[in-house]
Design goal:
The structure is a single chain. The protein is mainly β. Helix content is about 0%, strand content about 45%. The chain has strands spanning about 15-25, 30-40, 45-50, 55-60, 65-70, 80-90, 95, 100-105, 105-110, 115-120, 135-140, 165, 170-180, 190-195. A 4-stranded antiparallel beta sheet has the order 3-5-10-9, with no helix packed on it. Strands 6, 7, 8 and 11 form a 4-stranded antiparallel beta sheet that branches. The radius of gyration is 30 Å and the shape is rod-shaped. The mean pLDDT is about 85.
Length: about 210
């Protein structure tokens, strides 16, 4: 195995530098070359995420959450995807061993600006089902050609903890009352009942005696 060390000059300008390694045989006849690229970048990519619909989530829409925004990066990127990551927490404890992930494509809109917009299913949590009171910890990750991680709110170093409004249909009987006075044998009875929905989701119920 042949290894080689290359030291970046202190005053090197940001950009991509081609490195060529070559091996010669004993008689100095050309044998083989290896070409590599070293990317020099002094600034980290910056995330600007649209937060309007991400600070508060509805439980009945967690399967279609829109992630959109921009990444500002000074050099052209080789990998045209970022990653949405999330953890599921219950009573402050992490339920998953590894973060759930979803890849999102990015497109260059102008020099140094990359746009993304995609629906992400946050209920894709394997055998862990999201329940009322659970929390989601969300962050977006991306690295540039030089291996520098993206920074900004909702990035790896500043995860997003949205408030989840729980929508569910929760019917409860609030009244059962016999309206027939002094019923006799064989007489039909009139029973009044009232059912209220204590949840935020609409629904229907069938009442039978």
């Amino acid at each position: 195995q042949l290894s080689c060390a290359y030291e970046i000059p202190e005053q090197a300008i940001d950009g991509a530098y081609e490195i060529i390694l070559w091996m010669l045989s004993d008689n100095a006849t050309y044998n083989r070359t290896k070409v590599g690229i070293i990317n020099i970048d002094s600034t980290s990519p910056v995330l600007q995420l649209e937060l309007t619909d991400l600070l508060r989530l509805n439980s009945n829409q967690l399967d279609r959450i829109v992630f959109q925004g921009e990444i500002k990066e000074s050099t052209p990127v080789l990998v045209d995807k970022l990653q949405v990551n999330w953890n599921l927490l219950r009573n402050g404890s992490l339920l998953n061993n590894q973060p759930y992930t979803h890849n999102v494509s990015i497109d260059q809109t102008s020099s140094g600006v990359y746009y993304f917009s995609e629906l992400v299913n946050l209920t894709n949590t394997g055998q862990n089902y999201i329940q009322e009171g659970d929390e989601l910890e969300i962050w977006l990750s991306f690295t540039d050609n030089a291996g520098q991680s993206m920074i900004g709110f909702a990035s790896t170093y500043e995860p997003l903890l949205p408030r989840i409004t729980w929508y569910d249909f929760v019917p409860k009987i609030s009244l059962i009352e016999l309206r027939t006075e002094n019923p006799t044998k064989g007489e039909s009875l009139i029973v009044a009942t009232r059912i209220v929905n204590t949840g935020l989701e609409s629904g229907n119920v069938t009442v039978s005696l």
